[in-house]
Amino acid sequence: MSEDAGQRGYFSPESAVWRIARESVLMLGGGYALLMQAAHPLVAAGIVAHSSFRESPWRRLAGTMSAIYTVVYGTRAEADRAAARVRAIHAGVQGSIPERLGLYPAGTRYAAPEPRLLLWVHGTLVDTALVMHETFVRTLGEEEREAFYGDMKVVAQLFGTPASVIPGTFSDFHAYQREQLASGEIVVTDAAREVAETVLRPPVPLALRPALEALGLLTAGLLPESLREQYNLPWDRARAALLAASVQAMRRAVLPLLPDIVRAVGLERRARDRRTLPFDPLTAFAR
Q: Pick from 42, 204, 64, 217: which is nearest to 129 by CA?
């Protein structure tokens, strides 16, 4: 039995998604990802009706990120199981909206496995990873962005997005994002504002409030201006300057000094360790 049969996954350490997704700082973009997802009226309706976001506002995103990290850094067997769990959860998320939401009239049905909704959610994750990496780590070249996008197309298909609806190139994907935002389909509804309020202002101990405010500032600063205004998030030159200074401090003074055990996500470190160990056919399929 070859080493590949037990130890290898869909991606190697040389792949763009492996190198970009390993940075734990990318998880600071969770609020941005959630608010971008909820800006689609049907996605927001599904979140409100089919998740416990009020009690655990970050649980849905944490589950999604755990599945993505498993697909990127796990063995193929682990990745396939994680993707199957996500598809099974999506299968139960369906319903109809009771009132008009943006372009969608009352009674419009939604279902999480619907290709266009899967594509929107997947696109927000691609966008978040790239925005966060380029904000806090370093600017990526066109070839790197294209390679990362190509890797993420594999992830999208494992989670159920048909290849036929996925934009072919990173340039096509950017055009899709612009078209969605300009079409009027992406609009912040009351359901989306409820998600935002719960995500950005959850009840937390007093000691954690400064960190929460910093995350709120980051989220507001990253959002497209039109969505930021629809979410009623305050923004001005002072906030922009504070965010810019914070980003520069993180990028130049904090991140380079972090030890690997903090800087790299745990599954990536485990995957590296797994690949340095000799293949053992007695334990390779014991998980």
A: 64
- How many H-runs (helices) and E-runs (strands) does the chain carry? 15, 2
Residues facing residue 101 across a β-bridge: 104
Torsion over CA: 204, 210, 214, 216 (sign): positive
pLDDT of residue 86 exceeding 60 = yes
- Candidate from 31-35, 80-84, 207-211, 216-220 with smallest mean pLDDT: 207-211
**Rounded distance between C-alpha atoms, residue 134 and residue 112, angstroms:** 30
Instruction: Output the six-digit token pair for 270.
Output: 């485990």
Please, what is the angle between helix 209-222 and helix 190-200, to 10°? 140
58: tokens are 């970050």
CA-based R_g, the chain, Å: 19
Q: Provide the CB-side half-sphere exposure for 168 (13 A, CA).
A: 0
Residue 208 neighbours by CB under 8 Å, 6+ apart: none
DSSP string, 91-145: HT-EEE-SS-BTTBPTT-EEETT-HHHHHHHHHHHHHHHHHHHHHHT-PPPHHHH
Phi and psi angles of residue 110, each rounded to the nearest 5 degrees, phi first? -135, 155
Contact, 26 vs 133, CB < 8 A? Answer: yes
Model confidence, pTM: 0.90
